[in-house]
Model the fold of this input.
Amino acid sequence: MKKLVAIFAHPDDESFGIGSTLARYSHEGVSTWYLCGTHGESGTVDPEYMQGYTDVAELRAHELECASHELGLAGVQYLNYRDSGMLGSDDNRHPSSLFAAATDDVARRIIAHIEKLQPDTIITHDQFGGYGHPDHIKLHLATIRAYEMMYGLKFGKNEQGITAVIGEPPASADKVIPRLYVTAFSRRFLTIAVRLLPLFGQNPREFGRNKDIDLVEMTSWFVPITTRIYTKEYVSYKEKASACHNSQRPPTQQGNIITKLAFRRSQNAETFSRVYPAVKKGQPIETDLFG
Ligand SMILES: [Zn+2]
Done:
């Protein structure tokens, strides 16, 4: 039985971005796991959602349980760091925050899970943290570090400034190394959004619920798409899983036209960038995370 492990920072990252891919592999018989970095403690939650919960962490763990069920996941495990919030927020300084944790310590926690789960494929955040979230960036770095510590690989930046494996694992390496992917999405759509938003009276540099996402800066963040997973038949699972994260205003329920469009546009396929094994120049786009 094949095994897939998604390593992301918050309850909802598994659904909003890559939910259809996880649902597809679950339904195809792959044992699909979510290793979640935090309990999403810093998420903004309207008071009406807090009824019956002692804190945001408890609420969001419950929402993730619901999403996991909808996606057909084999299980959810936590790294048990605290959500750091966006860069510059007070939550960054909390001693238990993922932001405050040393990358090697995070890597060691990841390794403990990888050793238990023995995945064939791992997916994590891209080096820019999607929209720049510091927890996303930390998990990217820590997952790369875990690969270096476990398998003796070396990673750096290629000529395009993208995280890439350098050289081959040492000859003594006897472990099977899981394929490693990061999320990648079309910058073309982002460029269009940046042009359209002002027409709707919105500032593309102050996007999102907390106005802390700079879409203009994001257009300069390039991650090559190497892998396209066709997911049209699994959109309903993604929508149901996303709806579980009610307190976080799933993209499907937002009034924001751009968010709605972005969500709908991504439904035919979800895209990824393969980090290990390295993709050779001119290699065609893959359509499977297991090679
Ligand atoms: Zn997140």
Observations:
- The pocket of zinc ion is lined by residues 9-10, 13, 133, 136 (CB under 6 Å).
